[in-house]
Fold:
Amino acid sequence: MEETHGNIQRNSVTCAIIGHGLSELTLLMKRILPIIALVLGLSVTLYWAAAGANRGWTKTSVPVKTLDEVTGIEGITYQKRFVPGLDFLGCGWLGAGILAGVSLLFRKTINTNTT
Structure:
């Protein structure tokens, strides 16, 4: 249903979001964002642990010892592989902290209508 007020034309969805629905949206964001932040932090930690729990910087290639079949000399070759480090873990938890902090910006609205 559309309403026309002068030069402004609004539909019922816009009125619901701007009116009563906005307080429900902020309450939903206040509840959902910390949950998303916790899931993000735990997911990053589990991935970091499953990928080797590297306590150094993130690596995109890993040294592998190889033995030359002809000469018998050991050598090092690099294999392309992603190994997340503490910087990966820190950035994941930083992102989770930012999401949780953003949830604090939404105020809890109190309905003062007593009709």
Observations:
- The chain is about 50% helix and 25% strand.
- The chain has a mean pLDDT of 82.
